[in-house]
Hints:
CATH class: Alpha Beta
Number of helices: 9
Structural class: alpha/beta
Largest sheet: 8 strands, parallel
Low-confidence stretches: none
Shape: globular
Amino acid sequence: MTDDTAARLRATLARVAAAARRAGRDPAEIALCGVAKQMPAEAIAQAVEAGLAHVGESYVSEAKAKRPALLALLAARRVAPPRWHFVGRLQRNKARAVAEEFDCLHSLDRPELCDALGRHASAAGRTLEVLVQVNVAGEAQKGGAAPQAVGSLLRSCRRWPALRAVGLMTIPPADPDPERSRPVFAALRALRDALRATPEGSGLRELSMGMTADFEVAIEEGATILRVGTAIFGARRPAT
Length: 240
């Protein structure tokens, strides 16, 4: 294991804990998901060995290509595999791979994707946790359901016993000032809280929000899952 990987992970976890304490929260209720896009299997194995329990991937083909090597490395080191999260935008023709190989999807944003995931998860005999991606800021170039469409999408999920809708996810507009993300995070929390009073939203507990640049603000606004890449893995490099 490289000292850099372990040190970066420890430093990130310390920042998570400090932000949680400032917000009067228990750090244990916040999951740190290391986004491993373009990271090679060895780097991910090092992070998991250092204590990273959740790993996120953004591309199905990349994840499938490096998963066998990663699992072999972890087995050789007698390290339990992490919980797998798919955090990227998902095409419907890749729904089967996600339903079969991942534990949680963060980017459900349309009914047809819901149906594809439900069908494939059911066929695989698995239960897939899903979070609805919400385009809080209404950015045309980003995926995500409009806030007013989330309730309908959750009702679509309820048709599939193999899907369990557990929360909401958002990506705020890019901005060097993390405080600019705060209104978006607060709006997602308010939407989650309102939906929990409805039958379709009663199971919503997670808020997936906050990345390397703004995760401390996200924690202060109620995040339960952080999607952090650079702070853990350093600069991206091609996966092998």
